[in-house]
Write a structure and sequence with these properties.
Elements (H helix, E strand, L loop, with lengths): L6 H11 L10 H7 L3 E2 L5 H9 L5 H9 L3 E5 L5 E5 H23 L8 H12 L4 E2 H11 L5 H11 L2 E2 L14 E4 H5 L9 H12 L4 H8 L5 H7 L4 E4 L5 E4 L15 E2 L5 H4 L20 E5 L2 E11 L2 E8 L5 H18 L6 E6 L6
């Protein structure tokens, strides 16, 4: 009979592995590896993700990792942009290729009806062979070959069909503008590493997000048919029963802290995988927050999503507004205000005036 792990035990296990029970002294690059990449649809959230986790983190640390090509930005898990360590990208991209081809068909297949995907990939590879292109330039070049089809659909499909990356200035702090696209092997100066077994991906996921179900791994990665892979791994895994009796698997030596371990307030970045990387997100996300997670930046209070935050800037300064879902203790409110003040100084260091505003719902009688 499996030991049962309730939601709080799962919560603390996840927070420990994600460096959210306390900031770590590990290097930023190591933390990017620890969490198997940072979701980065927009350029700024990955910086906040590392600020939440790394003691003394500065913007320059992640910028340097992108400029020296230790970290790369590319379409990966679930067909979304991630920043991952380059040595991880080299084996992840070939492993995720079938999923990314499905993603391309699902996202752009109708718009590109009649376009042969293999030919599109070949033409795009030839266009990119001389170096990077902006997405608008790639769109125009592909549209010259397929003038009857949507140029945006043609260019964006390339991210699923070919191992391409978005080199700097894409992904740098506060950077906005046209995306750049380059062939991964050319930009990195290293060949891809196909043939790495999916067991490697499952171990990395469990180290960062476990204990978890097979469905959780699939929801995070976008891959399917992983149950048989996990079945073959059983001799090296431990199993538990989840809150609803579901089977959870884990690495034997991974941290599973005492459920009473204190969890500090954290203002998570938009689309942080810690709240998205599961089929069942209930270990961190309650029913009152479920519809907003992924669309708004979440606040963790005692380890679970207890609100959402935004920052607004203008000529007069910067304001961070924390919109809480429920009442908190005076100590939690003070901790939240202090953490928000520190985050606002990080994201808006040049503001002459910085204010934190807490919106706390009134207590019910």
């Amino acid at each position: 009979m499996h030991q049962r792990l309730d939601g709080r035990r799962l919560n603390r296990a996840t927070l420990a592995r994600q460096h959210l029970l306390g900031r770590t002294g590990r290097r930023a690059l190591d933390v990017v590896r620890d969490v198997v990449g940072l979701q980065g649809q927009d350029p700024d959230p990955p910086y906040v993700m590392l600020w939440d986790r790394v003691d003394g983190f500065s913007v320059g640390q992640l910028t340097a990792l992108q400029l020296d090509r230790s970290v790369v930005r590319a379409t990966l898990f679930r067909g979304t942009l991630h920043l991952v360590a380059t040595d991880d990208y080299l084996w992840l991209r070939p492993m995720l290729q079938p999923m990314l081809e499905r993603w391309q068909r699902g996202a752009w297949g109708k718009a590109l009806d009649g376009v042969d995907a293999a030919e599109l990939a070949k033409v795009a590879e030839q266009l990119l062979d001389d170096g990077r292109l902006t997405r608008p330039r790639l769109s125009r070049a592909l549209a010259a070959r397929w003038p009857e089809h949507n140029p945006t659909a043609l260019a964006r499909s390339v991210q699923g069909l070919l191992p391409v990356v978005h080199p700097p200035p894409d992904g740098l702090w506060h950077r906005h503008g046209p995306a750049h696209i380059a062939l991964a092997a050319s930009w990195l100066g290293r060949p891809l590493s196909p043939g790495v077994p999916p067991t490697t991906l499952i171990r990395r996921y469990l180290a960062a997000f476990g204990p978890a179900t097979v469905k959780d791994v699939q929801a995070w990665s976008g891959l399917t048919r992983l149950r048989e892979v996990v079945e073959a791994m059983r001799p090296e895994l431990v199993t538990f029963a989840g809150p609803q009796g579901e089977e959870l698997v884990d690495l034997p030596d991974a941290p599973r802290p005492d459920p009473d371990t204190p969890a500090p307030v954290r203002l998570l970045a938009l689309a942080d995988n810690v709240v998205l990387g599961y089929a069942d997100r209930s270990r961190l996300v309650g029913p009152d927050a479920a519809a907003r997670v992924g669309w708004e930046a979440a606040i963790l209070v005692d380890g679970v999503v207890g609100g959402f935050w935004t920052v607004a800037t203008d000529d007069d300064g910067a304001v961070l507004t924390a919109d809480l879902l429920r009442t908190v203790t005076p100590a939690q409110e003070a901790e939240l205000e202090a953490e928000a003040t520190r985050l606002l100084a990080f994201v808006a260091p040049e503001a002459d005036r910085r204010d934190v505003r807490l919106r706390v719902p009134a207590a019910r009688a």
